[in-house]
Recover the amino acids of this structure.
């Protein structure tokens, strides 16, 4: 009997171990060039009109990289650097060349409660320093929990700004409650004012900046180059990372429905779908721990145009997702084992640039 129990345990262990492995094949027809070296955690980066970069280091530094030289930007907002929080995403206004606005998300301790929460700021750059800083949104309440700050930024074709905030580890309260911050995608005018057609503008006590809800921790967001829809991805718990297409007022289900389980292996919910809640376009089990997201829209990568790239923190590769009829039909590993992929952007030259923790920013090349 003892031998049977041990055998069953060993079989169960092997089964769990196998389920934890990522089966995506490695693509060997590519290489890379290290463009910016010696970065710790390039959480976000963006290209200036002259082709130089602004790079957010999570610990709280903005680096201007130009002609091989790094310059540290001064007067950066003080960040709450705890757990997953810190200096997060960075984007230029679509009309940056005429107005000079730069948008930043970061974990901020501003407010009366201890801890921090995600904030959106805009500022301008002059003489290697941020000036005219304006906090456009600050989530509340602060909490000392170190998880699930979000946060990515995109602009749509109408000039609205969207940004994400994770549910801050308060899964049973924040994501399904539109009167509370956290577990949401938000939409604002570029000056921080609330659009009068936001979906919850007339709901009593609602956070009227909310665009969609029921999210866990979205760390990827991008505009589809053809449909112009907003695509996001978000971390699941153990299993159940998701890709979603975000629509106004929709509920994406967390934690009422999920394809994941608790980290201990216990069940969160019996439901993977429910009426009135959106199904993901794609989900990963096991989790890949996604961060960063970009479509390939240039002609630099034959056979890959239209593909979606998603970074994997857990398995340390760039996931090359082939899309057909709005579905992921194939995945393969790029930059396999190079490090935890944190951020992805297509540069003005049409090449894909990837921020990798404890390495830097690399340019993806197809052989």
């Amino acid at each position: 009997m003892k031998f049977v129990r041990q055998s069953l345990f060993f079989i169960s262990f092997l089964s769990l171990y196998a389920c934890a492995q990522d089966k995506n094949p490695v693509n060997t027809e590519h290489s890379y060039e290290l463009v910016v070296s010696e970065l710790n955690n390039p959480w976000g980066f963006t290209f200036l009109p002259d082709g130089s970069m602004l790079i957010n280091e999570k610990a709280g530094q903005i680096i201007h990289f130009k002609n091989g030289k790094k310059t540290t930007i001064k007067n950066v907002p003080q960040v709450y650097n705890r757990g997953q929080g810190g200096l997060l995403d960075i984007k230029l206004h679509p009309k940056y060349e005429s107005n000079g606005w730069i948008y930043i998300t970061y974990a901020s301790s501003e407010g009366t409660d201890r801890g921090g929460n995600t904030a959106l700021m805009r500022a301008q750059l002059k003489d290697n320093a941020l000036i005219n800083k304006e906090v456009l949104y600050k989530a509340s309440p602060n909490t000392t929990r170190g998880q699930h700050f979000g946060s990515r930024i995109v602009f749509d074709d109408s000039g609205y700004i969207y940004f994400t905030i994770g549910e801050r580890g308060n899964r049973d309260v924040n994501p399904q409650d539109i009167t509370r911050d956290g577990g949401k995608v938000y939409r604002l005018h570029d000056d921080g004012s609330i659009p009068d057609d936001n979906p919850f503008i007339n709901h009593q006590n609602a956070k009227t900046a909310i665009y969609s809800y029921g999210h866990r921790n979205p760390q990827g967001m991008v505009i589809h180059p053809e449909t112009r829809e907003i695509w996001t991805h978000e971390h699941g718990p153990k299993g159940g990372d998701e890709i979603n297409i975000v629509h106004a007022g929709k509920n994406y289900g967390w934690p009422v429905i999920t394809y994941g389980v608790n980290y201990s292996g216990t069940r969160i919910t019996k439901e993977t779908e429910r009426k009135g809640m959106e199904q993901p376009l794609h989900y990963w089990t096991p989790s890949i721990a996604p961060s960063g997201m970009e479509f390939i829209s240039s002609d630099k990568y034959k056979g890959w145009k239209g593909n979606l790239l998603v970074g994997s923190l857990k398995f340390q590769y760039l996931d090359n997702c082939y899309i057909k009829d709005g579905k992921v039909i194939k995945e393969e590993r790029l930059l396999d084992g190079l490090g935890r992929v944190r951020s992805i952007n297509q540069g003005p030259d049409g090449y894909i640039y990837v921020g990798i923790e404890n390495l830097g920013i690399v340019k993806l090349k197809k052989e």
